[in-house]
Design brief:
Jelly Rolls, DUF2961 domain-containing protein, DUF2961, mainly beta, 4 helices, 2 domains, about 40% strand, single chain, about 375 residues
Length: about 375
């Protein structure tokens, strides 16, 4: 990541494109009308984007999901980066909160300042855009894009990619939601068939990180799912096979506390019953990238044997040779909305149904089987 900053390299020029007021005044922002796309940077030649900083002011409180960031390298027409803006920088669910890691951050005040330090090389031009898919304008959009101009960047330098995915996972096992075997004995899962897929890449490169956003409608621990990596077309169980979601995120024993390491952590956790609600986990493979030469299929169970209904969304980050396969169509903004929050009244209704199913005895406590 540091890229030998002590090395003197003639011929490299440091540049910036920003939203500064061209008149010399203090209106250092652009506005992006509803439904329009703004070119933040269109850069000719070869170079490396070194840092991106963004902050926005908009009447749409869900603008972090309703604005989409895209990046194109070397004149390509299909983006190498496509994600809702907030999710890309490490703020899930369209919410505002602080997030700290080495390559990405959402900085104070209250996570309103987005930062990205992933180096992004290009050999023949770069374009970075924001599409405002909101019904309202982005009133104030401030940004820096810091980059280097190089005499050349070889094609062997992998190009940066990021892809957002989202799925409301269905319960696969016939016995239903039975994490920890609470309801019934759990089955085995010798396949990736029903897993949540967060990367499906064709080409040569290395996987370097994931932001993982999970909204859990129930109080049961969401994280018994194993991560599974199939490299270069290999069969299950693959070269890398995990032991549980919290293990994949370098933690242990069902954590539910905010923790920030440069490479991994929990930027957001719920304060409800058990693990009910919205959690943001992250893991960056900066010292231990996952390398592939032909393809990479990366997935994770949603509960052991895919036994839980969850709202999962992720941004995967990797470098690869071009060309890349085009991403699936980004879901429309209506399909990116959060699921309704499950709260106290919902839990009380569950209890009421349970009481009725158990004869409505006046002294039923809640732990009777």
């Amino acid at each position: 990541m540091l890229n030998h900053i002590s090395k003197i390299q003639p011929g490299i020029k440091t540049k910036r494109i920003s939203s500064y007021d061209r008149s010399g005044g203090n209106a250092d922002f652009i506005s992006i009308p509803a439904g329009e796309t703004a070119d933040l940077a269109v850069i000719a030649g070869a170079g490396i984007v070194k840092h991106i900083w963004i902050t926005v002011n908009a009447p749409d409180k869900f603008i972090r999901r309703n604005a989409v960031i895209r990046m194109y390298w070397d004149g390509e027409t299909e983006p190498s980066v496509e994600s809702p803006m907030g999710d890309f920088f490490g703020q899930g669910f369209g919410e505002e909160y602080n997030f700290a890691s080495l390559p990405l951050a959402a900085a104070p005040v209250n996570g309103k300042a987005f930062n990205c330090y992933f180096p992004m090389p290009f050999g023949d031009g770069a374009r970075i855009t924001i599409e405002n898919q909101s019904a309202e304008p982005i009133t104030n959009f401030y940004y820096y894009i810091d980059f280097e101009q190089h005499p050349e960047i070889p094609a062997s330098e992998g190009r940066f990619h990021a892809w957002w995915n989202r799925e409301i996972t269905g319960v696969h096992p016939q016995e239903g939601e039975t994490e920890w075997g609470v309801v019934a004995p759990q089955g085995k899962n010798p396949t990736t068939e029903h897993n949540y897929v967060f990367a499906n890449i064709v080409g040569s490169g290395q996987f370097v990180g994931i932001n993982y956003y999970v909204d859990n409608p129930g109080p049961m621990w969401y994280g018994e799912g194993d991560d599974m990596w199939l490299i270069d077309g290999e069969d299950w169980p693959g070269s890398l096979h995990g032991t549980g979601t919290e293990d994949f995120f370098n933690s242990s024993w069902c954590p539910n506390e905010v923790y920030a390491h440069p490479y991994f952590g929990y930027a957001k956790v719920p304060n409800k019953l058990g693990w009910m609600g919205r959690t943001h986990c992250y893991r960056f493979f900066l010292e231990d990238p996952i390398r592939f030469e032909k393809s990479l299929h990366a997935s994770i169970e949603h509960g052991h044997d895919n036994s839980l209904t969850l709202d999962l969304s992720t941004v995967a980050y990797w470098y690869q040779s071009e060309p890349h396969h085009p991403f699936p169509a980004l879901p429309a903004k209506e399909e990116r909305a959060n699921m309704p929050e499950v709260g106290v009244v919902d839990v009380h209704r569950w209890r009421h149904a349970w009481r009725n199913a158990n004869g409505s005895k006046p002294t039923l406590w809640g732990n009777e089987k």
